[in-house]
Amino acid sequence: MRTHLLTLHPGKLAELTSDTDEPQAKQARITSFMPASSSRGLSAERQRKITDKLTRFICKDMRPINISQGSGFKDFVQELEPRYAVPSRATISDRVVKLYDATKDNIKKMLSGENISLTTDGWTSIATEAYVTVTAHFINDDWEMKDIILKTAEVQETHTAEHVAECIANILGEYNVRPQSVLSITTDNAANYINAVERHLQVANVPCMVHTINLAVRKGLTVRAIESPINRLKATALHFNKSTTDSYLLESKQRLLGVKPAKLINDCATRWNSTYDMVCRAAEQQAPVAAVIMEKKLGHLELNTNEWSLMEQPSTGDPQALNDMKTKISADLEKRYSHTKDAFMLLNSASYLDPRFHRLIHLTGEQQQEVHDKVHREMRLIAEDEEHAENEEGAGDGTPLGAMGSLLGNVYRQFAGPGGTLDSGLVLQQEMRMYDAETPIPSDSNPLSWWKTSGTKYPHLARLARRYLSIPGTSVRAERVFSTAGMIVNKKRSALDPANVDRLVFLANNL
Fold it and tell me: Torsion-angle region of residue 394: left (phi > 0), alpha (psi -120 to 50) or beta?
């Protein structure tokens, strides 16, 4: 090394051997002559762990893969760990695929043997590619609600009920989920999705509560006496949001009248509460808006006294208009939650298994009995499955349904006959009677927490509760997936392959 330095780096040798005021340091290591950016000295395990974290960062925070190739990012990494070599884009892409496969395998194991509920919806990307997404929901053994994004699959055919059903069936097949394990599928009220679920997949369809309420409210708002002022408020909000001159004038009137400056809100057709917010904001800004309307001679935007009365205080406005609105909303909801639909009994069974509402006071006595009978039949099936499993395991010691005996304790012994046999029907009835006698918990309480602490007293009902309380009331989870997808498939990344879109959306939501 000394000969090499004398020959090619004489200045470096002189610098190292020069006399200084401080004691001569130990001989420099060979690594001190290597570039600071070199990855040598960083163990392969450490390099791998950092690359894994980088891959998870890209997926979880929905960043483009080429972020790792930017000069600013490399400078940042250089400051944190000079020995780390930022991998190429191809390496990161390969890691994304491996992470996707590993996460998917874990989810397959998680879903094995579980009864699940699904949500699904369709979406079109900025690149005009059509997708169908499916999410799965279930309650694990610790009474924790789990929701998982199964897939965001491209559908190149028209979105007919048959094609949608085929897409959902293929997704379930990828995860080895049997159709019998799917309790329900929550969708919006699109006819093709309803038919796909009910006719082709033959699974109970649960209408999205949020979408259903919005449709019903929109029906109610079509009452002429209410629709006219609502349309005028929408036109007013649109005018001030488009006219910069009148917008500045409104701001000056707000300051002059001592009203808190705020922009007018326009409603969104898919969110009924936006109409409510629009009316509230209009009432709050009534004086400055009226001043601008008068000054600019925009009389077609002005509401009369009766219309303002109806908007601000419906009870003192036009009672007939209000009654007509309520009638339309009620009729629309009744049609969508008809007693003849499978969802009616399904949702009421879920209500019975919710300790907040298990008294079912919203139903008639006959309907309550129907729900009780349905739950009892399903409990018997669970009991029979337990007995069959115990007999197969060689537990035939004269005490069938040992699981019930160990869980119900003294209650179990009350129904054991002279020969030690057990009338399972009486045990199940007693279990339901004990549950019926429970005091409903507060409506803002978590029913899963209650079942976690009290479920051992009601083993068969608890198994049903895990199944039914996993049913999503809305398809919001699927809608949120599209919000994620919209951030991934943006204008700069519109050429993403659909398979990569699925991987990135999957990882962003499931990691």
Answer: left
In whole angstroms, what is the distance from residue 195 CA to residue 39 CA? 58
Tell which residue, 105, 148, 202, 212, has the closest CA to residue 470.
148
State the Cα–Cα distance between residues 140 and 374, nearest whole angstrom.
24
Distance CA 315, CA 322 (A): 8
Which one, of 188, 225, 229, 178, lies nearest residue 210 by Cα?
188
Tokens of 37: 């950016």
Residue 401 near residue 427, CB atoms below 8 Å: yes
| Residue 59 burial (CB count, 10 A) | 26
Handedness of CA 273, 278, 283, 284 (dihedral sign): positive
Reduce the DSSP state of residue 135 to 3 states and report it.
strand
Long-range contacts of 423-430 (CB under 8 A, 24+ apart): 424/380, 424/383, 424/384, 424/387, 424/400, 425/380, 427/383, 427/401, 428/376, 428/379, 428/380, 428/383, 428/460, 429/376
As a residue count, the chain comes to 511
DSSP 8-state assignment for residue 198: I
Task: Show pLDDT as tens, one digit a residue, over the chain (511 residues).
Answer: 878 887 778 777 777 766 554 555 567 666 555 555 444 568 889 999 999 999 999 999 999 888 999 999 999 999 999 899 999 999 999 999 999 999 999 999 999 888 899 999 998 888 888 999 999 999 999 999 999 999 999 998 888 999 999 999 999 999 999 888 999 999 988 899 999 999 999 999 999 999 999 999 999 999 988 899 899 999 999 999 899 999 999 999 999 999 999 999 998 888 888 999 999 999 899 999 999 999 888 888 888 888 888 887 766 656 788 889 999 999 998 888 888 778 889 999 999 999 999 999 999 999 999 999 999 999 988 888 777 776 766 544 444 444 444 444 444 445 455 445 556 778 888 999 999 999 999 999 999 999 999 888 999 999 999 999 999 999 988 888 888 888 888 888 888 888 999 999 999 999 8
pTM for the model stands at 0.79
| CB of 450 closer than 8 Å to CB of 441 | yes
Cα separation values, 286 from 248, 300, 310, 314, 415, Å: 16, 15, 14, 17, 71
Burial of 112 per CB tally in 10 Å (0-12, 13-18, 19+): exposed
Report CA Rg, the chain: 33
Angstrom CA distances, 78 to 35, 57, 71, 419, stand at 12, 17, 10, 78
